[in-house]
Design goal:
By secondary structure, the protein is mainly alpha-helical. The chain contains seven helices and two strands; from the N terminus they run αββαααααα. Helix 1 crosses helix 4.
Length: about 180
């Protein structure tokens, strides 16, 4: 354990409690978790986890969007959490990062995730969807931008957790549980 860092045992136990709790709340078992240790990982190990969902093939469409198609943003509301998360996960952090980088961390909302999961399990809903993206790195600007070329996004219509968000925050927020 490096000075000023949590012991590996604490990291492993806390991480396990976190992902299993979230999986239980959304009604899916954590399918696979791997802890990868390497001498080059000075402060902590790498952890990779997966939760996998499946749907009957007849409930899944894979089509190209066409002019006039409707784009719907559903799920959680947008906040400052996750702004810069994609780049923040790749930079060097210090003890001061706790105070300065908190907004980079996405805040999960398991009840909202569970609602999305249940919605997408409905054949009546899933058969209407031509293409769907989750909101990972880059937020609405990337998720919607990957649907089709030449889209107009009215950021004023993005549901917000609170007032005061500027256009950049609305565009790049990685707030979770949004599709």
């Amino acid at each position: 354990t490096l000075e000023g860092k949590l012991p590996q045992r604490k990291l492993a136990q806390t991480a396990a409690a976190g992902y299993s709790s979230y999986g239980n709340q959304i009604g899916l078992a954590t399918g696979h978790v791997a802890e990868i240790y390497h001498p080059g990982y000075m402060a902590k190990r790498m952890e990779i986890g997966a939760v996998i969902g499946a749907a009957p093939i007849e409930n899944v469409r894979r089509e190209r969007p066409a002019p006039g198609d409707i784009i719907i943003l559903l799920g959680g509301k947008t906040g400052r959490d996750g702004c810069g998360g994609a780049t923040g996960s790749s930079k060097v952090h210090t003890e001061a990062s706790i105070e300065t980088c908190g907004a980079e961390v996405q805040k999960g909302n398991a009840p909202t995730e569970r609602k999305l999961q249940r919605l997408f399990r409905s054949p009546e809903v899933s058969r209407l969807i031509k293409k769907c993206n989750d909101f990972g790195a880059g937020g609405v600007s990337v998720a919607i931008g990957e649907l089709a070329a030449g889209l107009y996004i009215d950021l004023d219509l993005v549901p917000k957790k609170y007032a005061g968000l500027d256009g950049t925050e609305l565009a790049i927020s990685e707030s979770q549980e949004r599709m």
